[in-house]
Amino acid sequence: MKRILILHTGGTITMQLHVSQNDSSRSAVAFNLDFFEEQVPGLREIADLDSKTLFLEDSSNMIPELWARIAEAIEADYGNYDGFVVLHGTDTMAYTASALSFAFDNLSKPVVFTGSQVPLSNRRTDARRNLINSVELATLNLPEVCICFNDRVYRGNRATKISIGDFDAFASPNHPVLAEFGLNLDIRSQYRPDPGAFRNRARFDPRVQLVKLFPGMDFSRTIPGDASDVRALVIEAYGSGNLPAGGSHTLIPALGKYTRSGGIVIITSQAVYDEVDLDKYEGGRQALNLGAISAGDMTTEACITKIMYLLAHYEDHITIRDLFRENLAGERTR
Predict the structure, then answer these.
(1) Which parts of the chain are beta strand (E)?
(2) pLDDT tens digit string along 32-89?
(3) How far apart are CA 114 and CA 131, in angstroms?
(4) What architecture (CATH level 2) is domain 208-325?
(5) Residues designated as active site
(6) Fold identical between 3-200 and 208-325?
(7) What are the boundaries of each domain within the chain?
(8) Which residue among 93, 131, 149, 333 is least crowded, i.e. fewest CB within 10 A of its CB?
(9) 131 phi-psi bin (left φ>0, alpha ψ -120 to 50, beta other)
(10) Do 3 and 80 contact (CB within 8 A), yes or no?
């Protein structure tokens, strides 16, 4: 029987658990698996389970330091378990899963993120199904950081949250699901890492700013004047990467000032489907001439965590720009 470690970080799935159990929200002690057995009978028939509480946080409170704590916990027990299930709030789950996909070199075991829209202790909850599916998934040969939710398995760095109240909370707009639970589990695609020893490189530089364009935006207030405090700027532009570049309402001078100071500009789209093409319209072409980088078909979550990861590991802008354009962990098509 495969050995699986469940790591608890908070979120809706086990909301109220720390009230009814002995675990302190500030301790890193073993989780009481009797609670799971009570709520999800037969769970321990799937795998030999252990569980640890890392912290109990609403996912809106997640920060890069907590991403690193999850990665370090997996690294510490990497040789002791066949797979890992991370219980996490849904609001920022795609950010954490994306971050860990970049942090782990040569991952050879499943790291499965899951959560729920309704607490596990409620009668009408999606948590039981998500938990059963995730534990089963963690026993398989799937070397991915993934999200398992509502009978579907998404590559973590391709997923985004699309619904607040529906059980079908996630989607993977520009990549097929990795697997789908039905009568049988159909694993459709995997991102195979290079052979080599597993390594955790979970360091992230948070000096990144996200700007979503809207008509009439005052660029003098929203675009950093230089790169002293914001090393990289992710812009959610229109359509295929278009942005205002003509007349009096133009983004180009502000972008030029920022890039000349050493800032890195990444352009993604407010539309979640398809990919950015900066050659298609004049605004994109002018941004490209200033050194802006196309995000391709990456999610905004992947853009932000990827550039945070690269900024923490490299100083040379050419290296950072080149690596951002590469497919490091299955996060972009080209």
Answers:
(1) 3-8, 48-53, 83-87, 104-105, 111-114, 145-149, 152-155, 160-161, 170-171, 179-181, 185-187, 199-200, 208-212, 232-237, 245-246, 249-250, 264-269, 293-294
(2) 677 777 778 888 899 999 999 999 999 999 999 999 999 999 999 999 999 999 999 9
(3) 7
(4) 3-Layer(aba) Sandwich (3.40)
(5) 12
(6) yes
(7) 3-200, 208-325
(8) 333
(9) alpha
(10) yes
Question: Can you tell me the mean pLDDT for 201-211?
Answer: 98
At 110 the pLDDT is 96
What values do phi and psi take at 6, rounded to 5?
Answer: -95, 125
For residue 181, give both structure tokens.
Answer: 């639970």
Q: What is the mean pLDDT of residues 197-219?
A: 97
pTM above 0.85, yes or no: yes
Please answer whether residues 135 and 4 qualify as being in contact, where contact means their C-beta atoms are separated by less than 8 angstroms.
yes
- 3-class secondary structure, 303: helix
The domain over range 3-200 is classified in CATH as 3.10.180.10: no
